[in-house]
Design the sequence.
């Protein structure tokens, strides 16, 4: 009985890890917020980016297309 439980736990562990390995977690966002010398590309719409601005010098711009991810 103990062997069956251990085998089940191992099978679930390896099945979960291989599924996770196939997804990179990468998500390309369409817009970037520029704050001084930093660039945060985490926005899917211009409105989201504009709402995140904290000063008049902050700007939003389209993100460049992904390069071979």
Sequence:
């Amino acid at each position: 009985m103990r062997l069956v439980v251990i085998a089940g736990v191992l099978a679930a562990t390896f099945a979960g890890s291989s599924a996770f390995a196939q997804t990179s977690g990468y998500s390309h966002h369409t817009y970037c917020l520029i704050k001084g010398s930093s660039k945060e590309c985490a926005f899917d719409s211009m409105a989201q980016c504009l709402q995140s601005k904290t000063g008049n010098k902050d700007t939003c711009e389209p993100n460049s297309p992904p390069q071979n991810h």
Strands lie at 31-35, 38-43, 59-62. The mean pLDDT is 77.
